[in-house]
Write a structure and sequence with these properties.
Distance between the termini: 32 Å
Radius of gyration: 21 Å
Helix content: 25-40%
Oligomer: single chain
Order of helices and strands: EEEEEEHEHEHEHEHHHEHEHHHEHHEEEE
Low-confidence stretches: none
Bound molecules: zinc ion
Structural class: alpha/beta
Strand content: 15-25%
Shape: globular
Amino acid sequence: MPWDLLVRGGTVVTPAGPVAADLAVADGRCAEIAPGLAGEARETIDASGCHLLPGVIDSHVHFNDPGRAAWEGVASGSAAVAAGGGTLFIDMPLNASPPTLDGPSFDAKLAACRGTARTDFAFWGGIVPGRVDRLPELAERGVIGFKAFMSDSGIADFPAADEATLAAGMAAAAALGLPVAVHAEDDALTRRLAAEALSAGRLSAADYLASRPIEAETIAIGRAIALATETGASLHIVHVSSGAGVALVAEARSRGVDVSCETCPHYLVLTADDCRRLGAVAKCAPPLRDATEQAALWEAVADGRIMLIASDHSPAPATMKQSANFFEIWGGISGCQPLLGLMLEEGHAQRQLPLARLAELVAAAPAARYGLADRGRLEPGCQADFSIVDLAVARPLEAAALRDRHRLSPYLGRVVRGRIRQTVLRGQVIARDGEPVGPPIGRLVPGPAYKASPA
Ligand code: ZN
């Protein structure tokens, strides 16, 4: 029987390291990976001079669909993911309207993605006050975990989880066998510092940065770890921005607490100086930090204390990114498309991060963390999700190359590495040279507590 696809002559980045090999695909899965494969295939791609990397699993994006698709949308967001070498995005629960807090809102988001998403997709459910009893129905529908905010999310119908809500949410998630991800910044401290700045008329980017100190992050991480220890929940700290934050997570892990953390490309390649210089396009929370923190994060990325990297792609229309008062500007950095290219340049080329480790950070680790057993690795039997990349090409990012809706990026002009020739999902090419191709074939990837509804 002929293979569906044979990719010849490339270097396959396997979990053990890069190997010169052909890759054969059958029924959407990697069938064989070996040099000089002989056999018939319906389609053949010559990958000479290129690397095959596992498809990026971006486990933290805000596509705002349904309800706020004008901020991004699944069509444009997934096109950007595919153009950047991604094959799966995991959408956060807060920016859709309604937010993903129960079965009907999950169904609405699924309807927005079906027939629209160019990559596969999975969903986070939300933990907010008064709605913890809805977590089981979200689990059954297939969320891969639950997200809570420990500070103001900026979205009125996704309020922060107070201590009691977070504890109850963690206990419920533990019973369902799903992880809880938290945005860890202390609400009381950030609120007080912001109020002080505003009342004194200190409204600049620098004033905003000063209102969200590292201490706000470490207080919240410490509290989340204590609650996870009490409730037995599996805890994930999203977008850690500081060495001290990473250290708290590592210390808890050494005590046997099930806690992991991620960071984002913006904390690894941009600093507080970039926020002061670029303004709104580089506003996020926690905010960009100084070079000392950045160096600490790179160290933790290399040694495994930071388990995974996600974009936290969080766009908004240009009108929401303008104000004389920096506190009023919508926070969030767009970065799902350049994630891989930034890591290839700044991680691999500049800091000698091995390709296998890089692939683990953006594909194998999120797959493992969220219970997606057969993804994120180029091994026989795994889903055939990968990109074919010419690593010799490195050039400054241009707005015209971006496929997200607003193309507002703090990375413009910064070198990204790798011409992503093809992105392949289940053996089918979904993007070629930065352009999405073919119909949207994305499917829901359900989490481990999914119960198929009786047909
Ligand atoms: Zn986020």
